[in-house]
Design brief:
332 residues, mainly beta, Coagulation Factor XIII, Chain A, domain 1, Immunoglobulin-like, 2 domains, 7-stranded mixed beta sheet, 6-stranded mixed beta sheet, 11% helix, binds calcium ion, signal
Length: 332
């Protein structure tokens, strides 16, 4: 089981990935990755592109630079769309900035992130905001942990795939403010949700049998029913989403095909929720006996749990949660 609320653990995993040691043989679907894992994937891609660009002998060999970084003000988690402002200067003199990622870290390791991609911009110089909900997730919310937050890292890359990661010790010498307070008087949630039960509602599906009441040719839906629970720290964010990934494994336990089911909970703040995760099969879905590979459950405050099947290299016995079985047979 991987419980993700610790940035340092996730960053250690990211560092291992960047260092060329595979963290997991099989990459997780993007939606199951922590911010640090997504960042590591971006870095890894940039690194490969950089190597290709170097081999091609193109001209820009210097990474973008961060020359100003100063956080402005504090965050009131109970305000409408809370965010933290940053005065920043980032530039690249030749091929221009293409990506910046700014990570802020809470007292217990929760991460708020801003990721931007652009083209041909030589300089970002001014005040930007981090953690606003309209800018994507993970963002601040009324469930954010109160206390002292600080900069975790800044990642920059340019049009020739040169990249640089700035860590707190690289940012401190710039002389700006690198920490700020999050105020939250109404409780917060840094506690991951749990899976309490599950059942595969469609253990056998035929690609040629449409769901009841639908026209001939309609592809069938895989369905898993999940029971989940969530707690918090004075407030409960409640389960937001679950993803169940099925794998058709070959004799080396590699997935030759997968089915990714998604389920959403409509209401924030519930301490338990039972719901379905669904996916319509593809017309070219490989027939065979699939089994559950991963179950990912995330709450509205981005705390999440990842269960990985011990049948396929993970550490979790999923049959404990799925007493009726973890398989789904797909036939033509
Ligand atoms: Ca929670």
């Amino acid at each position: 089981m991987t419980v993700s609320r610790s940035t340092s653990l996730a960053l250690a995993a990211a560092a291992a990935l960047i260092g060329g040691q595979a963290v997991a043989a099989r990459p997780l679907p993007a939606a199951m990755q922590s911010p640090a894992q997504r960042m590591a994937a971006i870095q890894q891609q940039a690194s490969q592109q950089h190597a290709a660009a170097q081999a091609a002998g193109t001209a820009d060999n210097t990474a973008p630079v961060l020359t100003r970084f100063s956080l402005v003000g504090d965050v009131n988690a109970q305000s409408v769309n809370p965010k933290e402002d940053l005065d920043v200067t980032m530039s690249d003199e030749m091929s221009g900035l293409t990506t910046y990622i700014i990570n802020l870290k809470g007292p217990s390791g929760q991460m708020v992130q801003r990721v931007e991609t652009m083209y041909g911009q030589m300089k970002v110089d001014g005040r930007i905001s981090i953690g606003a909900q309209l800018l994507g997730t993970p963002s601040f919310s009324r469930f954010s942990e109160p206390g002292t937050w600080q900069v975790d890292s800044v990642f920059l890359s340019d049009g020739n795939f040169n990249m640089k990661m700035y860590w707190p010790e690289d940012i401190a010498p710039l002389g700006g403010r690198t920490s700020f307070a999050v105020k939250n008087t109404k409780g917060y949630d840094i506690t991951p949700p749990t899976l309490t039960s599950g059942s595969v509602e469609t253990p056998k599906l035929s690609l040629s049998t449409p769901p009841a009441g639908t026209p001939t040719g309609t592809l069938p839906y895989a369905s898993v029913k999940l029971g989940t629970a969530d707690t918090g720290n004075g407030a409960v964010a409640g389960v937001l989403e679950a993803i169940v990934e099925f794998c058709l494994a070959n004799q080396f336990a590699d997935c030759v095909d997968t089915i990714e089911l998604h389920g959403h909970v409509g209401q924030v703040g519930q301490d338990s929720a039972t719901f379905r995760a669904l996916a319509q099969l593809r017309s070219d879905q490989t027939p065979g006996v699939y089994q559950i590979l991963n179950v990912f459950v995330i709450d509205s405050a981005q705390n999440n749990v990842l269960l990985q099947s011990d049948k396929l290299g993970g550490g979790d016995d999923l049959s404990k949660y799925f007493p009726g079985g973890i398989t789904l047979k797909v036939s033509k």
